[in-house]
């Protein structure tokens, strides 16, 4: 695994875990997963849906692009990946700090001239 790759291990329950640099970074919840297993480019882009700059997952022709988001679910979030520091029965918590950390890591990779990636397994 490259130091520029976020690795998401998905579970059948729509929950998962993200690792970066070989360390557990956060837990995830996907209401309706739309991205198949694979490797995807990440960029920081403005989301009108969430009204902030967030990591955008570029899915290419196989699926619609999706957002990595840290907060309470909002309507029409199919495909979005919610991230949080704490896993609960219902999903994830401690989301704002988690998304800020992911944004910072994506920015660091971009600033180094490399391309941040998300691999879903």
Protein architecture, described:
By secondary structure, the protein is mainly beta. Helices cover 14% and strands 43% of the residues. The chain contains one helix and ten strands. It has an eight-stranded mixed β-barrel with strand order 1-2-3-7-6-5-4-10. The longest helix has 17 residues. The radius of gyration is 13 Å and the shape is globular.
Give a quick set of tags describing it.
1 helix; eight-stranded mixed barrel; 121 residues; 10 strands; mainly beta; two-stranded antiparallel ribbon; single chain
Task: Write a brief structural summary.
The chain has one helix at about 95-110; strands spanning about 5-10, 15-20, 25-30, 40-45, 50-60, 65-70, 80-85, 85, 90-95, 115-120. With about 120 residues, the protein is mainly beta.
Count of discrete alpha- or pi-helical segments spanning 4 or more residues: 1
DSSP strand tally = 10
Globally, the shape reads globular
Q: Supply the helix-strand structural class.
A: mainly beta
Helical content stands at 10-25%
What is the arithmetic mean of pLDDT? 89
- Tell me the fraction of residues in β-strands, as a range: 35-45%
Strand order of the largest sheet: 1-2-3-7-6-5-4-10
Distance between the termini: 12 Å
H-E order: EEEEEEEEEHE
Query: Which regions have little confidence, pLDDT < 50, spanning 5+ residues?
Result: none
Largest sheet: 8 strands, mixed, barrel
Tell me the radius of gyration.
13 Å
